[in-house]
Specification:
The protein is an alpha/beta fold. About 30% of the residues lie in helices and about 20% in strands. The chain has two domains: about 1-80 and about 255-310, Luciferase, Domain 3 (Luciferase, domain 3), CATH 2.30.38.10; about 95-235, Rossmann fold, CATH 3.40.50. It has nine helices and 14 strands. A seven-stranded mixed beta sheet has the order 5-4-6-7-8-9-10, sandwiched between helices. Strands 1, 11, 12, 13 and 14 form a five-stranded mixed beta sheet that branches. The protein has a two-stranded antiparallel sheet with strand order 2-3. α2 packs across α3 and α8 (about 180-185) runs parallel beside α9 (about 210-225).
Amino acid sequence: MQNKVFNIQSEEDFKEVALAVFKHQFANNNVYRSFCDLLYIHPSDVTKIEEIPFLPIQFFKSKEILSSKDQVQETFSSSGTTGSVTSKHLVTDISWYEKSYLLGFEQFYGDISDYVVLALLPNYLERKGSSLIYMVNDLIKRSSHPESGFYLNNLSELTKTLKDLDKRGKKVLLIGVSFALLDLIEQYQFSLKNTIVMETGGMKGRRKELIRAELHDILKKGFGISEIHSEYGMTELLSQGYSKGKGIFNSPPWMKLLTRDTEDPLTVLPKGNSGGINVIDLANFNSCSFIATQDLGKVHSDGSFEIIGRFDNSDIRGCNLMVL
């Protein structure tokens, strides 16, 4: 099935694979099967992806979401405040994740070995269990540049390295949590020509929340660049969407977003309408590929999407809590 998922070429391919994955998970995932049974939905009644039930993301906090009987290789956990219940994503075959983020990155940015990867994120050893750190740590290794690495607590060294690499015309990817990128530009001024700056999340728990446009305006001025890139991912997914600017994201062929009615969560809205974000991530073959998130957004007619915010009263969580 892995080959089918990562070789999707068309809408028809996606539909065919998604329906096959739904049948597999209905048959092999006890939690998801119980959820579908409560809705009286059976694979024999489902002919299009909009009819597939989307499991509320909160189930990852209280249940083991597995569609495989194989041994768990990695457990990814969400960041959370002290005492809060975190999500756990049990991964029985880490090759699904590695293939997903490598092919996804390559689709949007090309070969990772072309880039120096500078990570303004908690060190991998400091925050065991983060899927983001797992991915970035692997990208750093695969970049094959001696300067690539984690720079969370050494902004002066990062600044020197960043300016030197940019001046030498090296392709650089600076990936960081938003508050740390703001800390950097408050202390140092940049005028970058060859660097992609990619933020991975908001201010949760560290600074006043800013809307994305406001945050990006500050970062663009501070780094002297025309666009800020963004990554859209979460503990419960094994795929990422990427934005090359203006908050418009695209996803790889095996990942698709839909919006649901905020008043009636079982109703999928037509493209162009704002609503709750449902994600189909076919790389989640061994857990659950159909997830109703707590994000609010809009999906455009070409499949690109925007994230507008989160449902009120959802838990405070996200990448920035990793350093608390």
